Amino acid sequence: MDVQVQTRTVTVTPTIDTNAYSANDQVGGLQTLTAAAGRKDRGVTLQNVIILDKAAQSAEITIFFFDTEPTIASSNNATLNISDAEMLKCIGHVTVTADDYATTSANAIACAKPVSVCVGLRSSNSEGTLYAVAKTSGTPTYGSASDLVFT
Questions:
Q1: Are 34 and 10 spatial neighbours (Cβ–Cβ below 8 Å)?
Q2: What average pLDDT does the structure give for the chain?
Q3: Quick one: pLDDT at residue 43?
Q4: What DSSP line would sit under 13-29, residue for residue?
Q5: Which residues neighbour 61 within 8 Å (Cβ) at sequence distance 6 or greater?
Q6: Closest Cα to residue 142, out of 51, 17, 50?
C-alpha cells in the first residue's frame, strides 16, 4: 500500500468589524482555503488551528469547515445563520476557548490541537479547496479590520 503524507499550511485574514461583536455573531465572511486538501482523491486531517489575535481580545471562536462552498445566510457581525441544507456540507468544527490563548501586552495567540476533522472530499471538489466560517461566543471589539489571522 502506497501512503503519501503531505502537509500544507493555509493562512487567511478575514475582514472583520471594528464594532463590538455579540455572542453567536459571525466573525468575518466565508473564507476560501484554496488547495488546502491537495487533491480530491486524498483524505484530509486538520492538524491544528492557530488564531493570532492582534487586539488581544482572546474571545472564544468556533470555526466551521466545509468541503463544498456553502451559502451563508448571515454576514459579518450578525448572528451566524446557516441553513440545515448548507450544514450538510460541514465536515467538522474547531472551538478555540479563551483559555487556549497565550497573551502578551500587544496580542494573543491560540493553538487548538489535535483537530478531529478527517474526511474524504466530495467528487465535485477537484481542487481540494476547503471553506471556513467563524463564530464568536464572546463579545470582542477589534481595533482593525485585519486583527485576526487564522492558520
A1: yes
A2: 87
A3: 63
A4: -----SSPP-TTBEEEE
A5: 27, 51, 95, 96, 134, 135, 136, 137, 138
A6: 17
